[in-house]
Design brief:
Layout (H helix, E strand, L loop, with lengths): L1 H28 E3 L1 E2 L2 E2 L1 E2 L2 E2 L1 E3 L1 H10 L4 E9 L5 E5 H7 L4 H5 L1 E7 L2 H8 L6 H16 L5 H12 L5 H5 L14 H29 L14 E7 L13 E2 L5 E2 L3
Antiparallel strand pairs: 1-6, 2-3, 4-5, 7-8, 9-10, 11-12
C-alpha cells in the first residue's frame, strides 16, 4: 500500500510542478495595457492584458531547464534525478476539460461560400436567386448536402441553365468547359468541397494546437462540421463559430 501511494504521489508531482510553472507563465504574460506610451487606468485600477507571445516565450525559455528533482532517484553521478520542464509536461496527468473548466465549440465550414468562390463570385440574378433558394431549402432539409440543394434550386429557378455555364471559370477551366455535363460538374464541385474541408481540418489542427488544448477532436459530419474541444479562460478567445471556408486553390479558413 505504501509503495502504491508513493508511486501515485510521484506521478502526481509532475502535474503539480507543471501547473506551478504554467501559472508563473500566465503571471509573466499579464502586463499593463499601454496606449500611446501611457498605462491605461480605469476607476483607479491599472488595466491588465494577457500577452500570449510573452507566455510562449516564458515556457519556451524553460523547456530544457531542470525544474524538478525527485528524491530518492539519482543519476550515475549521485545527483538527484532531474526533469526538464518539457519532460514534466510530458508526464503530467491529463486533467480533462471537466477538471480544467472547459467548453466545446462546433466550427462549421461554410459550403455556400465555397460554392460562391468556385463560381468566380458569380453576380448574375439567376445565381443569386439560386443561392437564396438553396439556403431556404437547407433550413428545411438540414441533413441534405448543400450542393444537392443548389442543383435542385437551379432546376426550379431556371430549368434550362446548365451548371457548366456557371462554373466554367478561370479557376476550373482545365476541368469544366461549357460542354461539360451536369453530372461531371457535380462530381468536380464535390471534390473541390471535400478538398476545402480537408484543408480546413489541417488549419484547425494547427491553430488549435497553438492553444495547447487539453484535447481536441475533429470528426467530419455530413454538414461539414468539425467538433473541437477547447479549454476555458484566455484560450476561449480563439474560439469563433461558425467560420467560413474561403477558397484560394483548395480552401483556407477565415480568422477563428
Amino acid at each position: 500500500m505504501a509503495l502504491l501511494t508513493a508511486v501515485c504521489l510521484f506521478y502526481l508531482s509532475f502535474t503539480v510542478v507543471s501547473s506551478t510553472y504554467q501559472r508563473r507563465a500566465v503571471e509573466f504574460a499579464t502586463v499593463p495595457l499601454v496606449v500611446d506610451g501611457e498605462v491605461v487606468i480605469v476607476d483607479g485600477e491599472i488595466v491588465m492584458v494577457f500577452d500570449r507571445d510573452r507566455e510562449t516565450h516564458f515556457l519556451d525559455s524553460i523547456a530544457y531547464e531542470v525544474v524538478w528533482r525527485v528524491w530518492p532517484f539519482r543519476d550515475r553521478n549521485g545527483n538527484k534525478r532531474g526533469y526538464t520542464f518539457r519532460e514534466v509536461r510530458e508526464r503530467e496527468i491529463n486533467l480533462g476539460l471537466d477538471l480544467r473548466g472547459g467548453m466545446n465549440v462546433i466550427l462549421e465550414v461554410s459550403v455556400p461560400d465555397i460554392i460562391r468562390a468556385l463560381s468566380g463570385h458569380n453576380q448574375t440574378d439567376v445565381f443569386n436567386r439560386t443561392m437564396e433558394r438553396a439556403n431556404e431549402l437547407q433550413r428545411i432539409h438540414s441533413n441534405v448536402q448543400f450542393l444537392d440543394l443548389f442543383v435542385r434550386a437551379l432546376e426550379e429557378i431556371d430549368p434550362d441553365m446548365r451548371l457548366a455555364a456557371i462554373f466554367s471559370t478561370l479557376e476550373l477551366r482545365d476541368r469544366i468547359s461549357l460542354t461539360t455535363s451536369d453530372a461531371d460538374v457535380i462530381r468536380i464541385l464535390q471534390g473541390e468541397i471535400d478538398a476545402a474541408v480537408a484543408n480546413s481540418f489541417n488549419v484547425l489542427r494547427t491553430r488549435i494546437d497553438r492553444f495547447r488544448c487539453c484535447s481536441a477532436k475533429y470528426p467530419a459530419f455530413g454538414s461539414y462540421r468539425t467538433y473541437s474541444y477547447r479549454t476555458s479562460g484566455r484560450k476561449r478567445a480563439g474560439a469563433r463559430a461558425p467560420i467560413a471556408a474561403r477558397l484560394g486553390k483548395l480552401g483556407v479558413l477565415g480568422n477563428i
